[in-house]
Specification:
heterodimer, A: alpha+beta, Alpha-Beta Plaits, 4 strands, about 40% helix, B: 3 domains
Chain lengths: ~70, ~625
Amino acid sequence: MTKVFNLVDLDCANCAQKMEDAIRKIDGVEDVSVSFMMQKMTLTADEEKFEEIKKKIKKVCRKVEPDCKIEF
Amino acid sequence: MNRKQKNVLIRIIISLVLLIAIKTASAFSEIVCDYELIAYLIPYAIIGWDVLWKAIRNISRGQVFDENFLMAIATIGAMFTGEYIEGAAVMLFYQVGELFQSCAVGRSRKSIASLMNIRPDHANIERDGKLETVSPEDVNIGDTIVIKPGEKIPLDGVILDGSSTVDTAALTGESVPRDVLTGDDVVSGCINLSGVLKVRVTKRFGESTVAKILDLVENTGSKKAKSENFITKFARYYTPCVVVGAVLLAVLPPLITGGDWASWIHRALIFLVISCPCALVISVPLSFFGGIGGASRCGVLVKGGNYLEALAKTEIIVFDKTGTLTKGVFNVTAIHPDIISESELLEYAALAEHYSNHPISRSLKDAYDREIDTSRINDYAETAGRGVRAKIDSAVICAGNNKYMDEIGVKWHPCHHVGTTVHVAVNGEYAGHIVISDEVKSDAKDAISNLKKHGIKKTVMLTGDSKETAESIAASLGIDEVYSELMPADKVSNVEKLISEKSSDKTLAFVGDGINDAPVLARADIGIAMGAMGSDAAIEAADIVLMDDKPSKIADAIDISKRTLRIVYQNIVFALAVKAAVLALGALGIASMWAAVFADVGVSVIAILNAMRALHVKSK
């Protein structure tokens, strides 16, 4: 399943990249792309684990880029 | 500027004024001099508190190579080595650069968004003779909507009543408005310019052209180009390397030579300031974003930076014939009677073919352009793939191809015109023939020659049409290779063969109209679909979508892609060169921290400004 989420206060391109790298490592994530320009995240992940993955993403992003909020 | 940016601006002004005040005061007053560190800490705190705070927060989470952390170390380090002004000023300039960066990115984001400002916000629906304003999402298929002059067409539909001119510029880049009349289709996203239109909706909003395009544009960022991936990979190693370099620079030389610690630490701090890869990381996607935005302004939708990159490396372009290079509309192009008049020949042919559903009979009827009196047609019989036979008035008319004439034993002669020939026999005697052919698009020839000028090595045409027709069209357009009489599956295998022939670092593009060629669009390195206004299949199957029917747009798109790539390379080379130079000079003790700040934010700003050029495409 692929979904697109808005990102709020994503301030630097490098952080976007770091977020992408960190999310990619989460189990069950098939593909992810964080677009700094569009302030959007495109996530392809296992449908059954989607909610669980979303929680993990939240946690990872708090660590990598605490200022950025994901509009789940 | 948003509130956050305004806040930073105010802090910049306050700390700048304070810095100047302290500097001036310290020249006159002994007291200020004695408490210099404390005095400079005030503007430093005002401008840098958020950086320091983020540094502490991120380091506690294990983010060692965080730019805030590096900046904090560099400036605090400068303070410790006694360079108070430098410490505060470097932080100040860092913030100025960051502010400029965020404004520039915000602006380019906005200008691209405004390019795609085609989302209709309301529809005037007609219910029981009264007009109601509703959201386009709430309109159903079959509803009647009214579009007033100046309004955006909210949904795809067909005009029930009214005539007008519509501005399609937002979709196609075409500046000349298009005239529409009752019975014509209208496409959502265009602007109704002059008259009131009453339109019956044929698609829900989600399936309408405008929604498809918006969806496509919003997802452009998710496909990243190779050079974008290169730079992010590079950034991953760059920062740790420079930081390690800084540590070695601070520790090793003084240990070995027993030199002055403060001077080497200062040099190491310069390294830390340069260690942020932001200039690179931001300018590359921004350039691609600008290029995609610029292309959409010309009516070319590119689905991602990777396709823009691939397009710049195109070596072979393969065209589908019908609907791509030709109009896909069959017309009578020649009438050659032998024993009767031209109008008689056409009349017989049109009447005889009246009951046939073949596209050829439709074009014959269109050319005849008069009411057909069906009582004149009797004893109709059709032989599939051959022709038709009917009794018109008292004469027996046979109309069909070469094989049909042979079968009924009528001696025919071939035509020198290229196209599909329909022979007509009256009472068993050859009466002449009519040639039907597809017209070549007016800009097709220029399109091919322009592509050659843009460095395309080979142009190829694929078609299911006959060999003679295909070769004559290819010759008139200047196409290098032709493959004719192909079945749809043959097109894929032909494209595969061509892909294996091209140079490995170059790409092959296939151009089609999205009808019946989706597998080929998908197989080619770059699938270009044209005439997307109204064709969903094309939008979905292709990587690049030309909004109108003009093949000449391909050369424009290649132009834009090359220009964007040039800007991307300029930025990469420029940023790396400046950083390397300042790193080298810094290690030798020649470059100051000012130079380092320039190499960081200054380079970012210049790279961003350069990237913005990609957005500005010369309108033709």
